[in-house]
Amino acid sequence: MRLLIAEDDELVLLGLKLVVEQLGHQVYATARTAEEAVDIAECTLPDMALIDVGLADGSDGLFATREISGRLEIPVIVCSAHATEEQALGAGARRFLMKPFGIEALAEAIDGIRGPHVAGATLAA
């Protein structure tokens, strides 16, 4: 799967990229802000997006989630230490991971939403 990762912390981004690749997926693009994530998703149409809530310049990953999952119908996994599962799912995320999370949790989240995109489908975390 080709993933877009929206994360503004360089160390966290590096770790996510390594894990995603170890799980057999491709990090197709990265973004530091919500607006950049939406723009990249519109242009590249990744298979899935992994989005942090607190992004650079104070931008809101939940905004990006609403746009990417709602308008573009791309499945989103939201990861955050600050948002709640209810907020993430309410914004259209298919899965929520509370930071810090382990490799197994990320693998389960990705595997849980692999396959054909279904508009409006929401799966419990």
Task: Give an account of the 3D structure.
The chain has 125 residues and is of the alpha/beta class. 41% of the residues lie in helices and 20% in strands. It has helices spanning 10-22, 34-44, 61-71, 85-90, 103-112, and strands at 2-6, 26-31, 48-52, 76-80, 95-98. It has a five-stranded parallel sheet, with helices on both faces. Helix 4 links the parallel strand 4 and strand 5. The two termini are 20 Å apart.
Helices, by number, come to: 5
What integer is the average pLDDT? 91
Task: Give the termini separation.
Answer: 20 Å
Shape: globular
- Classify the oligomer: single chain
Give a brief rundown of this model.
The protein is an alpha/beta fold and 125 residues long.
What would the keywords be for this entry?
125 residues; alpha/beta; 5 helices; 5 strands; disordered C terminus
Write the layout of secondary structure elements.
Layout: E1 2-6, H1 10-22, E2 26-31, H2 34-44, E3 48-52, H3 61-71, E4 76-80, H4 85-90, E5 95-98, H5 103-112
Parallel strand pairs: 1-2, 1-3, 3-4, 4-5
Helix pairs in contact: 2-3
